[in-house]
Amino acid sequence: MKNKSLLSRFLIWRVKNIKERQFVLILSFLVGVVSGLAALVLKNTIHFTHHFLTHRLHVESANLLYLAYPAVGILLTVLFVKFFVKDNIGHGVSRILYAISKKNSLIKSHNNYSSVLASTLTIGFGGSVGAEAPVVLTGASIGSNLGRMFHMNQKIITLMVGCGAAGAIGGIFKAPMAGMVFTLEVLMLDLTMASLIPLLISSITGASIAYFFMGKGVLLSYDVTEPFVIGNFPYYILLGVFAGLVSLYFTRFSMYLEGQFDRITNCYRKMMVGGILLGILIFLFPPLYGEGYTTIQALLDGNHTHLVNNSIFYFLKDNYWLLLGYVVLILGFKVIASTVTTGSGGVGGIFAPSLFLGGVSGFFVARFINGFNFVKLSESNFTLIGMAGMMAGVMHAPLTAIFLIVEITGGYELFIPIMVTATIAYLTIMYFEPHSIYTKRLAKRGELITHNKDKAVLTLMKLGKVIETDLKKVSPDATLGELVKIISHSQRNIFPVVDEDDKLLGIVLLDDIRHIMFNPEMYEETYVRNLMIMPPAILDANAPMEKVMRRFEETGAWNLPVTQDEKYLGFVSKAKIFNVYRRVLVHFSDE
Where is the CBS domain (predicted)? Predict the structure, then answer.
């Protein structure tokens, strides 16, 4: 009670002394600090867990521990989620989009820590996913809950969700520009100065926290030794097409595999199937272990033999074409390993798998072309450029991919080929798949509004706020003469017909009776029940505004009645909805 009292006094003091816009900037800084710290904690716990479990393994032989580690990690994750969290915390970015779309940007408070702990168990023990989506959900949850704690409105809470995501991306990758662009491109927050500055503050703050504790080193260090060559332009385009097609495979096949796992209702059976399958895949293909950043770094360094370390296929390290076949298998099975990890109960995201697939794809394309000896492409450069292409395709976010790859590798000299490949990959997958892997789940259920401003605004509108109740009701037993008297005192041209229980029976339109309303001979012999018609549609009071507008479009009507449990409540006019829509739109997008 004392803490609540202190908070209440602070809130009152804040309203009197700090303008809302200034307080939003302060709040965005606070969200950036906490999100950056969360990213720091997650990255380090995963690293130390991974190092503790694998640093004694021999690179020249297979290791049976790879069969056991993933299953143990998934088991611990499932038990933690089932008995402590008691909520679904998978698919972090999709859950943020759902919260923005359907939950007024409110995210449960346990997400402040639950995703960090669960993903540490999953990834540290070899789960073939990334830590970025869990920490993005963590950051978004921090922003949502801080906004709610300070009693901010829904628009500002949504902005704080974006700030948390930006701070988390900035912190885990040390990439502030990518953090800001991610929220604009993937979460689809409005690009206005009112949102841009807080997002920048949070992303820069998150990245600064990472720099302060971990130094200036980037996630994947790379020195460009072979500069951009204009003559290689066709190969960058080819890499973009290849990355787009692999992205399509990733999106479609992972959704299919998720569906297969969803059919297994027993969580322990699901965990056992996934753990065993993942263990076998990692035993055969050790690069599938964990996030895969060590593999990407090795390819950037030109060390292709790392691909077969700890593997039964170590003998392939010096065979040019057989090693390429091994790389193709890694590309195919990485998608399976990532989906199996999350489908069986593990917690992780697709950032790292996308970067891994992109790096390996770039290496494959360059090495395959180099095998014909008519051109010499830099396999390291193509590894870096391929990461941008794959991320642009999988996430449908070319700008995020471009800025992220440049920031995390320092490969600014390759900015042009990175842009070309990312753009081509994005255009390639868009030809086949209009939704990213994040939005596809929500779009299938009609729950995605963040990528559609009309849906976003309509979601903020409530049907009860636009119902008009000034229409004169009439009884079905009333005569035409009585109806004319009612018409003479009405400003409307529609008259709902209701019974003694207020149930809607029909409507009378003024235009339909205009030709008889001045004929007194019909006043006593003509009854309303003979004049009424049925409206083209009847709206339920609990219907969402998107459905209401769809009914207006289907019927072509300008006014429709609203009922609740068959009882008449009033009418809704399209004109009234448009007026309210304009007001909400201004509030939704104001500077």
Answer: 467-525, 532-591
* SS3 category, 507: strand
Q: Tell whether the model's pLDDT for residue 591 goes beyond 50.
A: no
The 10 Å Cβ neighbour count of residue 38 is: 28
Pairwise CA distance, residues 588 & 582, whole Å:
10
What domains are there in the chain, each with its CATH number?
14-214 (1.10.3080.10), 230-451 (1.10.3080.10), 455-588 (3.10.580.10)
Q: What is the pLDDT of residue 455?
A: 52
As a whole number of angstroms, the distance between CA 323 and CA 325 comes to: 5
Structure tokens at 75: 């088991």
**Better-predicted residue by pLDDT, 469 or 161:** 161
The model's confidence at residue 588, banded by pLDDT at 50, 70 and 90, is very low
CA-to-CA distance for 192 and 149, rounded, in angstroms?
Answer: 25
Q: State yes or no: pLDDT of 333 exceeds 80.
A: yes
Say yes or no to pLDDT of 472 above 70: yes
Under a CB-based contact definition with an 8 Å cutoff, are residues 139 and 168 in contact? yes
Alpha-helical segments (H) within 64-107? 65-80, 92-102
Judging by DSSP bridges, how do beta strands 539-540 and 494-498 pair with one another? unpaired
Give pLDDT tens digits for 43-99: 888 888 877 877 666 555 556 777 788 888 888 888 898 888 888 777 777 788 778
Q: Which two structure tokens, joined as six digits, stand for 444? A: 């299938």
Q: From 39, 65, 36, 34, select the one nearest 50 (Cα to Cα).
A: 65
- Give the rounded distance of the alpha carbon of 271 from its chain centre: 25
**pLDDT higher than 70, residue 521:** yes
3-state secondary structure of 228: coil
For 114-155, the DSSP string reads HHHHHHHHHHHTT-SSBSHHHHHHHHHHHHHHHHHHTT--HH
Q: Do residues 440 and 89 make contact, with C-beta atoms less than 8 angstroms apart?
A: no
* Three-state SS sequence of 146-158: HHHHCCCCHHHHH
Instruction: Report the range out of 13-22, 61-70, 110-119 with the highest average pLDDT.
Output: 110-119
Q: How many CB atoms lie within 10 A of CB 524?
A: 11
Is the pLDDT reported for residue 499 higher than 50?
yes
Phi/psi for 151 (5° steps) reads 55, 45
Distance CA 496, CA 528 (A): 10
